[in-house]
Amino acid sequence: MHSDLNPYSLKNTEDAPSSFIGRADILGEVLRDLKTADAAGLFIYGQRCIGKTALLRHLVARLPERGEYLPVYFDLQGMAGLSLEQVLTRLIPEMVRPLNLSVPAERITPSRFERRILPFILSALPERRTLVLVFDEFDTPKMSGSRQAGQAFYPYIRKLFFTDPRRLKFIFAIGRRPGDLDRIYHSFYKGTKLHHLPMFTREETTELARLSERNQSLIWPDEQITAIREFTGGHPFLTRNLCRVIWEKNHKKETAGIPVVHFRDMVGIFPRAIKTSDRTFSLLWNGLGPWERVAASALAEAGSGGLDQETLRDQLEKSGVYPLNGGLDHAIRTLEQWGVIRAENSEYRIRINMLGRWIMAVKPFEQMRDELDRLASEFFETARALCRQDDFKTAIPLLHQTAELSPNHLKANRLLAKLLIRQGDVDGAVALLEPLYEFSFPEIHPLYLRALLLQARNAENAADRLAICEKILDIEPAHPDALAEYRMIFEDQGDRACEINDFDAALAAYARAEAHEKIRQVEQTLEQIAIAHRLNRRKKRWGLGKWFFRWTFALCLLAACGLFVAYAVYRHVSEDLPRISSLKDYRPPLITTVYAGDGSKIGEFYRERRIVIPLSRMSDNLINAFIAAEDARFFSHEGLDFISIVRAFFKNIEAGTVVQGGSTITQQVIKSFLLTPERSYKRKFKEAILAYRIDKAFSKEDILFLYLNQIYLGHGAYGVEAAAENYFGKSAKDLTLAECAMLAGLAKAPGTHSPVRRPKRAGIRQKYVLKRMAEEGYVSPKQARKAAETALKIRNRRENWYLKKVPFFTEYVRSYIEKEYGLEALYTGGLKIFTTVDPALQQAAREEVEKGLKALENRHKYPGNVKPQGALLCMETGTGFVRAMVGGRDFSFSQFNRAIQSRRQPGSAFKPVIYAAALDKGYTPMTMLYDSPIAIPDNGKWWRPGNYDHRFYGPIRLRRALAKSRNLPVVKVLRNIGIRYAVNYAHNLGIRSRLNGGLSLALGASGVSLLEMVEAYSVFANRGMRIEPVFIRKIVDRNGREIPLSRPAPEQAIEPATAFLMTSLLQSVVTGGTGYKAKKLDRPVAGKTGTTNDFRDAWFLGYTPGYVAGAWVGFDIERPLGKSETGSRAACPIWLGFMEKLLADKPVREFDIPDGVVYAKIDADSGLLAIPESPRVIREWFKAGTLPKRHAPRPTPEYLVTEPEDFFKAGL
């Protein structure tokens, strides 16, 4: 080797020898990534790394030997200035050369290449071969600045990248600047399935650049850095010093600052090194063939003197691993191509990279590592002794040295951090402990949190304190000191906001600080401001009008002389009064209640949420509270309380506004039942007359019964029972005194005194009611004070509370009742609807749908607010009861029920319908179909359906065609049995949607609902019996009578034998086909996946003995889910997770075998009944009468003809 040749100098890159050490490791990882099914490409990145191009060329040379790949190497370094068309023109000859193809003679453009030429090349690939495009210097077009190449090349390659990951893969190599990977890889291939094989880490690149620029010639190979890091175990001190020692001790002696590696430095080292347990050399040694090992060892032992051919031949002969008949030249050429040897003056010398340089330092550095550990332990013990003597100033430097020698010395770092905290250097302690916390040392956890807390307290501004507190709470959410500090920050912010009268900001800050007392103070301040504002307005408004009211009062006294006018009015008004007899037949609107299968309440429908109860079921305190607050003289007056009317009149005159009313409870009943709410004197006269009449016709208890069941008390509650349930979650009979007073206070103004929206005003009104009860003698003053001080737990009951349970199911029941019985029955009839849903299964279904959709979102990172949707429906096979139904991921966002209302293409999930129809036309599971291309005329064009993998299996049996979800056989089956017959057959299975009349029906091209598909599959599970899905078990009216339901009786849709054969076929889909994931249930399962074009819809429908369920995943808008999102990947995990929870506590059952089916052994070669001599036998189910009639022929024995007359005996 010449002394002026430096394989690691930038000046000699063309003649630099390629390395082979570490290549087996990298190549093995490349091949593993190429085999990954979802990996469409691979990035190889190495900054200024000699050996990257050699690695790629070696990869291209070795890939064809595996019989799986056809590689094409393409160097982009010299093509920066070319247009995209010119780049493709040069690439195509390289691609077609391995196949000996002739590309169509037309001008090559990106669009034509994508649509015509590339599919032509891929279709010509041998079976199970993959075309691998290797692009070296992939960053060149972008770096060159060429407008055409830079702007068009990368977007076009991105299009090709998604063509077919099984038939076309990419390998890209970058090797220019450290920023190229971020600039090209992350921005160009973000969100795709792309593997990255780094030849340098960022830290290694930084370290090598520092060492390289010292001499401006040294380029460290990636294998050496990787080996050094593995050798030192990633120890930063050892790695840094090992690199320095290798440079200074081994290369500093060379002339002109250029290190030259001669093999004589390695005499005797290499053979021993390759036999050690070091991982790098083990991989190298395992990557060489038998004769290559012998040749490499012989060359290494020969040293700089070289090795002649005879000696090498002798070595190979002794090993017995290489033939002696002239194969030496081939061995030498192979070793030269690999870069192992180089011919110089008839001598063969090994060529190695700098990896061998550090082998000589193995033993010294092992000793150095042990010495460093020993020194670190001594320093630590000395420092700990100094700490016991309170000599912290001397101990801290020793601990710093300990951490430098052994960065993961846990005790030293903990002691150092404690000392730094003690001396006030909290930032230094945090910086020291943070790396150890990231390495998950549990002993560091409390000390690290303590240091962070001190750092937060020492922070100068609130933003830094808040950030550190949030960091602590991310680590330990319930940390008490951090929570206190966190709250103190926001409490200070609230105090500052109050100082400048920014009460909204103060409330927000106090809410985050959970400072409830200060929140109350701010609310009181706001209330006082609001009251003062109202009083000021009232004074301005009524200042001059006060005298007007006083004069009006005087005039009213003078009107007493006009009593005769009142009598005339009475006569006039009494003529058109409503009849009070209607009150005796009190039938108010009642709540329609929906119950789940286990009897729990899941929904209510009403116009007025009212629950009518007798007075006996009301608390005495509740009745007394209403009387005291609304009509204290109720039991003594005769419908009108003239004393209260006069008192209210004077109070209103004094206040200048209406502050008190004089209506009795009887008058309020009249307002609710008999009169309109208009404000007029005529209505007032009518009210007074009716009040007198009602008081004479009804008892006081009857009037109270009507009043307390009719009154509106806010938040949709009519009557005291509904209000008690709304606000307190209990019956009116179980209310406490404080709760009774709160409800009674709502009668005057339920919106203004709402305990949910305005708790302060509600509390004031409650105290007023308690005061009135004490004044009237219903309770003692002490009881009233105690009740006023009692804190109430108010429930914020939403009117649509049922949405959290089974929203889509309940909404379906609502629409059904409205359609069948009308709006009045639904919202006022007081029906009790008992459904089939199971709340536990419904919750499991919602969890699994959301889990599956989140997994899908994590795989693809959809933009903006684009979110995939899903649906799931489960039904009992024997009864038709629908046990769970999820129509989407969020009912509050979208009420569209995708399980019932949506019509989507089912894809391959529709194939069982076609095959079931074929079985009734004489087909059997053993029927031979043909998976081969077909062209079908379609409106003047030709429709050419294909398979998912773009391959053809040729002759294939019906069972395997369904299990592997082959498209072409089912299209041909549909053509044979007839489209109209198949459409009628599908309708008979329960599919009511309109189906198209083309052969694409076989591939699920017509939109159907999930409910229809589940019902169709339930026919297979029910031995051919069709049972319509049942959502409602029974309906009971307000009087307790059951309402008859119109429900069709079960009918035999298909033969039990056909249903059983379909179950057997669908079991094959699970055991050996596209539904293989369902095998995890570990029990008999039958099912089928479904995927539409461009992965827009994903389905899985399956059943076990007892239950049938289906899952659908897709977007509401027409857009793909993402690459490879098939029914097996996107929908089957949702179905599987739900069924695992459903069947967790249920015994394993087998599918029943009906009469009319037989089980037979079939000769696989002939399709006839098997005989004992049949070489291959298949066991298959048949309908009775469809079994083959004949047996397979006996195999003909081989007959050797030795004599002429034997020829004529042959075959006899």
From TrEMBL:
Gene Ontology biological process: cell wall organization; peptidoglycan biosynthetic process; proteolysis; regulation of cell shape
Bilayer-crossing regions: 547-570
Keywords noted in UniProt: Carboxypeptidase, Cell shape, Cell wall biogenesis/degradation, Glycosyltransferase, Hydrolase, Membrane, Multifunctional enzyme, Peptidoglycan synthesis, Protease, Transferase, Transmembrane, Transmembrane helix
Classification via InterPro entries: Beta-lactam/transpept-like, Glyco_trans_51, Glycosyltr_51/Transpeptidase, Lysozyme-like_dom_sf, P-loop_NTPase, PBP_transglycosylase, PCN-bd_Tpept, TPR-like_helical_dom_sf
Top-level taxon of the source organism: Bacteria
EC number: 2.4.99.28
Domain Penicillin-binding protein transpeptidase, chain residue ranges per copy: 871-1105
Pfam family, one: Transgly
UniProt keyword Methyltransferase, yes or no: no
The keyword Ligase is assigned to this record: no
Gene3D superfamilies: Biosynthetic peptidoglycan transglycosylase-like, DD-peptidase/beta-lactamase superfamily, P-loop containing nucleotide triphosphate hydrolases, Tetratricopeptide repeat domain
Record pathway: Cell wall biogenesis; peptidoglycan biosynthesis; Glycan biosynthesis
Family, as annotated: In the N-terminal section; belongs to the glycosyltransferase 51 family.
NCBIfam families from the UniProt entry: PBP_1a_fam
Name of the protein described by the UniProt record: peptidoglycan glycosyltransferase
